[in-house]
Amino acid sequence: MKTTITVNGQASTLDLDTRTSLLDALREHLNLKGSKKGCDHGQCGACTVLVNGVRINSCLSLAVMHDGDEVTTIEGIGGEENLHPMQQAFLTQDAFQCGYCTPGQICSAVGMLKEAAQNWPSQASEDLTGAIALTDAEIRERMSGNICRCSAYPQIIAAIRDVAGDVA
């Protein structure tokens, strides 16, 4: 099936098997290897990308469902010469060890901050009437779909807090 997806600002028309996941389309058809295949069951978050600004697990979504959508992968978040503030914060806070989960963590964190700025509540949100307070508990809850096998969670939270302080 012909599917046109705008990935990192560039439109691509792909002829895909309707069973192809968005993750496989990105990795195998567009050669964007930043999004990782961890569990392939939507449980680890290594494949997290932004679709129309909202974070999703790309392993659970069929590529043909995203005809006309805008997808942002880690390759589109920032570049070597112009790091996104979240990428810089991950470096500054040493928020990764093996780095396998890092692309998904960064995409998820960027999407999560947007959700919080729009006052989307989470299970940990204490006040549903005012602005979301990004406490450590709130950040942990919002990032709970992204697993780090190396347990760099304190540094990940610190990196997110650094950026949240800049955008708040």
TrEMBL record:
Q: Spell out the PROSITE patterns in the cross-references.
A: 2FE2S_FER_1 (PS00197), 2FE2S_FER_2 (PS51085)
Instruction: Print the keywords alphabetically.
Output: 2Fe-2S, Iron, Iron-sulfur, Metal-binding, Oxidoreductase
Q: Which InterPro entries match?
A: 2Fe-2S-bd (IPR002888), 2Fe-2S-bd_dom_sf (IPR036884), 2Fe-2S_ferredoxin-like_sf (IPR036010), 2Fe-2S_ferredoxin-type (IPR001041), 2Fe2S_fd_BS (IPR006058), Aldehyde_Oxdr_Iron-Sulfur (IPR052914), Beta-grasp_dom_sf (IPR012675)
Q: Which GO terms describe its cellular component?
A: periplasmic space
What SUPFAM superfamilies does UniProt report for this protein, alphabetically?
Answer: 2Fe-2S ferredoxin-like, CO dehydrogenase ISP C-domain like
CDD domains annotated for this entry? fer2
Q: Name one GO molecular function term.
A: oxidoreductase activity, acting on the aldehyde or oxo group of donors
Q: Could you confirm whether the keyword Ubl conjugation appears in this record?
A: no
**Keyword check for Cell membrane:** no
Protein name (record)? 2Fe-2S iron-sulfur cluster binding domain-containing protein
Organism expressing this protein natively = Phenylobacterium glaciei
